[in-house]
Write a structure and sequence with these properties.
Length: 114
């Protein structure tokens, strides 16, 4: 699998989580829910489809319109777990750095006050 920018890993994770909850969402709805442009949502979804992590199934939305259900494949479910672990590890590391910085600032303030 090609190396993607870290921001794309996070965006792919967010998209996969959203598709699990709302497989019926249109690309426009996905873009709104993710807070990205329609073009970016299309790019992210197309990448997941190309990698076989998501599959699109036709379904009829109304009498005159067809839409897609976007469903995670087994490989997509595994990748979502991997990305979740990576994201969690990253956030835990950031949390520890922030916690140390806060402790340092508190110590600095206490030294200045004394």
């Amino acid at each position: 699998m090609a190396t993607l920018p870290e921001s794309d890993h996070i965006a792919h994770l967010q998209l996969m989580r959203l598709l699990e909850e709302h497989p019926e969402y249109t690309q426009r709805q996905l873009s709104e829910a993710l807070g990205v442009s329609l073009g970016k949502a299309h790019y992210l979804l197309k990448a997941l489809l190309a990698r076989g992590l998501v599959k699109a199934q036709n379904f009829q939305r109304s009498e005159h319109k067809w839409g897609y259900l976007y469903v995670l494949t087994p490989a997509g479910a595994r990748r979502k777990v991997q990305l979740t672990r990576l994201f969690l590890n990253q956030k835990e590391h950031e949390y520890e750095q922030l916690r140390r910085e806060i402790e340092s600032l508190r110590s600095e303030l206490a030294d200045d006050a004394g």
